[in-house]
Here is the input.
Amino acid sequence: MPYVVRNAEGQIESLHRQASEAATEFLEDRHPDVVGFLGADEDGQSFSRLDADFVRVVEDLIDVLLAKNILNVTDLPAEAQTKLFARKGFREKVSKNSLRLFDSNFGDVI
Here is the structure.
């Protein structure tokens, strides 16, 4: 997909969806130069993947704080509660191993 512009050292300076006078070289999405330019390490793990993993850690931390009654769901801002319940609902559909905040007889939360 990307057409690239390279500098004098041969490193990618920019990616483009379409060819232009400056961007004539086409590379595959998974080409090592493209992956490196987008901020992935040598294993192909991008910063956004690390962010997603960290969000999971934060969510698990919230679970522990709730389970130990150190934090109440109502202590969180309404927007945070909405996002947390949305993620919980999705994770519960995907995995039966996640912490359930409410008894199944409680009904719909949102």
Observations:
- The two ends are 41 Å apart (CA to CA).
